[in-house]
Each structure stands twice: as structure tokens, then as C-alpha cells.
Amino acid sequence: MILVSGVNHLAAAAFDRIASSYDELFTDTAVGRAQRRQVWTRLLEAFPPGSRILELNCGTGGDARFLASRGRSVLACDASRAMIQVAQQRHRGNNTRNAEYRVVANEDLGFLLGEKCFDGAFSNFSGFNCVADLATVAASLAKLVKPGGRVLVCVWSRTCVTEMLWYLLRGEFKKAARRLSTSSEVTLGGLAISVYYPGVPEIRASFAPWFQLLSRRAIGLFVPPSYVEQWVNTRPHLLARLERFDEWSAAWPILRDLGDHVLLEFERCSP
Fold first, then answer.
1. Which burial class, exposed, middle or buried, applies to 175 when counting CB atoms under 10 A from its CB (0-12, 13-18, 19+)?
2. How many Å apart are CA 193 and CA 215, to the nearest integer?
3. Domain span at residue 78?
4. Which of 39, 54, 55, 151 is the most exposed place for a label (fewest CB within 10 A)?
5. Pairing of strands 183-188, 191-196
6. CATH no. for residue 259?
7. Domain for residue 92, yes or no?
8. Does some domain include residue 2?
9. Domain-embedded: residue 81
10. How many CB atoms lie within 10 A of CB 74?
11. Which contiguous run of DSSP H or E holds residue 266?
């Protein structure tokens, strides 16, 4: 089923334009798979079999299909109608039935308040970096997630060492420092959209008092960002080693904040 929310913002329009090529650009790339595997490990730990999970900004549904195939039930939402349509098309080719897709923006979670409470929720790969007001989204999540439920949020970090080194070596100094600002404008699908880079203290404050931060870890600490894909493809054995380095050190203090993304795990506090 597709349910359309009231939001039709510029970011949704931009993702509509790249929906048909998104998997080729990220999901199905070597780097995309490597980073996603790191998140999947944490999702399986946070959500035991039988869990009913809310996914925000689900994109083309790769995470929902993975969790559904492993005994979890997922309501997957995205602001982009085209992304949801691709997700549904891809899901039809699988034998799993435990996933439902709806067109609902992060800012419009109030449309789901009639739903039975979820055991947990998550947002993967930077969907929250397109949200200007995280506190409002967190307040809505607090009404949708059971006390004790986990909420995992994967966002772009403020400081990505591999990105800085990549662009510095190429002489692109502005790009090397772009995440150090609180926000920037990027072009996606030919449209200029705003992207925000909240730090961990800011995200934690936005989720309080409804959620308590339990842990955080880097995603893509040694595994590079997706735009390094062409370089990585010529060094497949190196990528496997970088994945092992990530698993070993991504939760270390200091290092956990220096990856391409940071994955934060919250727990819904009791009322």
C-alpha cells in the first residue's frame, strides 16, 4: 500500500529524480554494500526476530527487504514517491511478505499515530541530514516507539577523515572542509537542496528527554565514501581489509566520530 503524506518538499523531488539509478549509484556498489553490512549487524542486534520496526527514509527498500527476510516486520517510509515505487517493485521479486511501504516524510510522522506502537525504529544513511528540525521528528518518534525500544540513526559525521584526505590530495579544499559547517547546499537530480551536519551533542539534545543515547560507532571509518568506488573497484582485497579494520575499531572513542557516517543507538525512555 502507498500512503501519501502532506509534505512535498524539494528533497523528495530531488530523490524522485534519481530513484531509478540510486541502487546503481550507491546500494549495489562495493562501498555501499560494505557500509550497509556494518549497519545490518547492529540492526539485527537491536531488533530480535519478531520485532515490528519503523524505517524512516527507506529509499529503495534494501534494509526493509533484508530485515523482512530475517523474521522482522517493517513499515518502511520515504518522502519520495518514486523511491517507494522502486522499493515495491524490488520487493515483489522476493519471497518475504513482512514489509510494507508508504510515502511519508520524516517531518510527517504524525500521519502514523493511529498505528500500533513499534518495537523500534531506524533511519539509515543520512536521511536525517535532510531534516532541519530533528527535535520535532524525535517527539513524533517518541509517540510511535514503545518504552525500552531502540532507535538507530545513521547520519553523516561532522568530520570524515577519509573524505578530507581524498579532497585535500586532489586540491579541492572547499569540499574537504564542507562538513565542518552546520549546513551546505548540494545538487541532487539537478535540484539544489539543503544538507545539515548536526554533531552528536546536538542530535542527543534533540532526542532528549524521550530517548537516551546508549552508544555510537563510525560507519565507514576506513571503508571510504561512495564516490571513491572507482578507486576501490581496482583493489577488492583492500576493501575487505578495510571492513575488518572498521569492525575492530569503529566504536573506539575519538575514532567513532571520524567515519563517513556515525551510527547512534537510542533507547526510548519510560514515560
1. middle
2. 30
3. 10-268
4. 39
5. antiparallel
6. 3.40.50.150
7. yes
8. no
9. yes
10. 26
11. strand 261-268
Total count of domains within the chain: 1
The structure's pTM equals 0.94
At residue 260, what are phi and psi to the nearest 5 degrees?
Answer: -65, -40
Which of these, 98, 86, 19, lies nearest to 55 by C-alpha position? 98
210 domain-assigned? yes
Q: How far apart are the C-alpha atoms of 180 and 171, rounded to whole Å?
A: 17
Please give the C-alpha separations between residue 244 and each of 18, 159, 248, in angstroms, as whole numbers. Answer: 31, 21, 6
pLDDT (tens place) for every residue of the chain, 271 residues total: 444 444 447 899 999 999 999 999 899 999 999 999 999 999 999 999 999 999 999 999 999 999 999 999 999 999 999 999 999 998 886 766 799 999 999 999 999 999 999 999 999 999 999 999 999 999 999 999 999 999 999 999 999 999 999 999 999 999 999 999 889 888 999 999 999 999 999 999 999 999 999 999 999 999 999 989 988 888 889 999 999 999 999 999 999 999 999 999 999 999 7
